[in-house]
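Hey,
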Amino acid sequence: MRSGSPFSGRMTGSSWFPPDRPSRGGAVSNDRQGIEELLKRHKAAQLTDASMVCDSARVQELLAENADPNVADDKERLPLHAASYAGAVEVMQQLLEAKAEANLQEKKDGDRALQVAAWQGHGKVTELLLDHSADVEAVDQRGWSPLCSASFQGHASIVRMLLKQGADPARAVVVSGQGSMTPLQAAAKGRKLEVAEVLKEALANAPISPRQPAGPVKTLQSATQAIIQILPEAFSPRERTKPGDLPASSRGGSGPSKQPAPAAKNWLGTLSDFLAKCCPCQREAPRS
């Protein structure tokens, strides 16, 4: 163990405890677990510090000593996030090869490695994270997505990279202290003209999904379709046993009438067609 370690000099023989320490059953086991946890966090701190300064040799040494790249130190820092911040490409490769999880979120600030790399403008690090299945749409604790981060900072090459990997150029996020923000609005706030042009082109070329909801018009249209489907049951004489359950126009000596259902269906069908015209992108196939 390296000199200067807070744990140096505490080992006696092959045990963490002095030979004359009395046995306390489960308490000894709990103490041992606590010390093992401290050791893990101590190594995590060393690994994070080495990652921050791009010390790949020290990182390799710590990983060889079984330092876990997915364990946070006592300040809740993670090695992968430190490498993302510093743009440490070689260190990033070492950590990912050691099974570092690309989508881990730091507990203290909620940072994600991809969002950090996108904000900092580290293209190669961003590419490595994406190659290891980093979530292109995941936001940090403050609400920033990778695409909004890169857009606000003006990193056009990273914006293109994220769009190529499927990031939605129209997706709005809610950023703490900023409110709702799309990537284009983020670029405008940061006054990043090149990024704005890249996003405008992506928006112009983005396909419009025919199944994507279009606000209250689509909601009302769907509701009328649902009502059309249930009307036959609603007016079925088998389901009605009391005169009061039937429409007033259907009461009388000749028994319940079946006429209201077709009339209502026709009216609602007309309403649905009208709503479809109000929202052309939501038109569906003609009803048979």
